[in-house]
Design a protein that fits this description.
By secondary structure, the protein is α/β, with parallel strands linked by helices. The chain contains six helices and eight strands; from the N terminus they run αβββαβαβαβαββα. Helix 2 crosses helix 6. It is globular, with a radius of gyration of 16 Å.
């Protein structure tokens, strides 16, 4: 690795510790979101991975907006192909527990299925401070009191597409809770980044779930939702 790019070694070992969603799945309950997917029943195997269940209501006070990537992911020092990405697994748990509205952020130029090309693309986007285009941006979060922003952590921060998503919205009077899935970096810089890019927002407590542990994360997710007041005790 060039001494001028010390981050690249870290990226190749841990960048994509969490991501993705099954190809073709489109979710959302917001008026200007993609089509609503049917409720999925968890498979019987030990790696149950189901998509978020959107609210059927015309509107709610909580929005869960997330970006996720399936395909080849970092997994305990190696690689594993996921049919549903780690962030989407946790998003599914949240949506079933609290019945929030769900918006899945879709990249106009989808990220590669393979790990290394995604690492390289993320390096380029971070170094260029890029704003990757979104196929389904929201025009407003006005009707929500609380917004949960979910993503993997890639090289210590949320993918740049999350900045694309939030910069065009007015978060005045909203509480924003970061949600991340990760290999090594926890919440990364999401709290600082969203404080700067979510105009008018109050930053609330975030949740970071290790990518390799998402299948067993529901107790942790439930405890967090209770602490932040989104799930009755």
């Amino acid at each position: 690795m060039s001494k001028h790019h010390p981050r690249r070694a870290f990226l190749r070992s841990a960048l994509l510790g969490a991501a993705g969603t099954a190809a073709g799945t489109v979710l959302g309950a917001c008026t200007d979101s993609p089509a609503v997917s049917p409720t999925a029943s968890p498979p019987a195997d030990s790696e149950s991975r189901t998509a978020p269940v959107p609210s059927s209501s015309a509107g709610g006070t909580v929005l869960l907006a997330y970006f996720s990537r399936a395909g080849e992911n970092y997994f305990n020092g190696g690689r594993k192909r996921l049919s549903v990405g780690n962030t989407e697994v946790v998003a599914g748990m949240i949506s079933r527990l609290i019945g929030c509205d769900v918006h899945r952020i879709e990249a106009a130029d989808p990220y590669p299925d393979d790990y290394d090309p995604t690492v390289e693309r993320n390096v380029r986007e971070q170094e260029a401070n890029a704003r990757p285009a979104i196929t389904n941006p929201l025009t407003s979060v006005e009707r929500y009191d609380t917004v949960v922003l979910g993503s993997p952590i890639w090289n210590v921060r949320a993918p740049m597409i999350m900045t694309t998503f939030v910069e065009g919205l007015d978060f005045a009077g909203k509480t924003v809770h970061p949600l991340t899935t990760y290999a090594m970096s926890g919440l990364g810089t999401t709290e600082r980044d969203y404080a700067a890019s979510c105009s008018g927002a109050t930053l609330g407590e975030g949740l970071a779930v290790r990518g390799e542990e998402v299948a067993d994360a529901q107790p942790t997710v439930e405890a967090w939702l209770r602490r932040i007041g989104l799930l009755a005790r």
